[in-house]
Amino acid sequence: MDAATEARLLKLLDRQDIMDVLVRYCRSMDRFDREGLLSCYHPDAIDDHGAFVGSADAFFEYYRPWHAKYNMGHHHSISNTSIEIKNDTAHTETYWLFESMNADGSMSLHGGRYLDRFEKRDGQWKIAARACIAEWHGKLGQIEIDPEYAKIMAGPGTSERDRSDRSYERPLLITRPNQQMPF
User: Model's pTM, two decimal places?
Assistant: First the structure.
């Protein structure tokens, strides 16, 4: 393999490692997975989420009770990520959506961007600094779902906000019989 191709492959591996951290962050927030969240940050990292500025550990301890109190469930979703890598430092901009079913029964949607400085230390890319830019907020309308249909759709499992969620099941097994809903 020539040097130019090898350099491109190493850059792709770095980009993928950074993307893996960004996705793990979202999953960890949604599952209240403290260990997963902390694995995204260097120990001396600073996170600025507006209402909170501090370490990753303090960030988790601040937001977990808030999400548990005000949200019955939520998703942190990301898209459009730009990554600029120079040596062992990378700057990223990642668009995010935060969708939540709130404790009061309403649904909300929020959007913004994560601006991150990643550093590669001991071969691992992790967040060293994060600014969470919230750009807009809104409420979603409710839709009626047939209770029988909702019950059937819950068959594969429900969302759990801890490591009992099926996303941690290894191996994932399907034990329900084949079925189809008549429409």
Answer: 0.88
What are 163's two structure tokens?
């490591």
Yes or no: say if 89 and 119 are a contact pair by the CB < 8 Å rule. Answer: yes
Please list the pLDDT of the chain residue by residue as tens digits (183 residues).
899 999 999 999 999 999 999 999 999 999 999 999 999 999 999 999 999 999 999 999 999 999 999 999 999 999 999 999 999 999 999 999 999 999 999 999 999 999 999 999 999 999 999 999 999 999 988 778 788 877 877 888 888 999 999 899 899 888 877 766 665
Angle at alpha carbon of residue 169, lines to 167 and 175, rounded to 5°: 105
Alpha-helical (H) ranges within the chain are 3-30, 34-38, 56-70, 147-153
Would you kindly state where each structural domain of the chain is located, as residue ranges? 3-142
| CATH number of this structure's domain 3-142 | 3.10.450.50
Which residues have C-beta within 8 Å of that of residue 160, sequence separation ≥ 6? Answer: 31, 166
SS3 41: strand
C-beta separation of 93 from 122 below 8 A: no
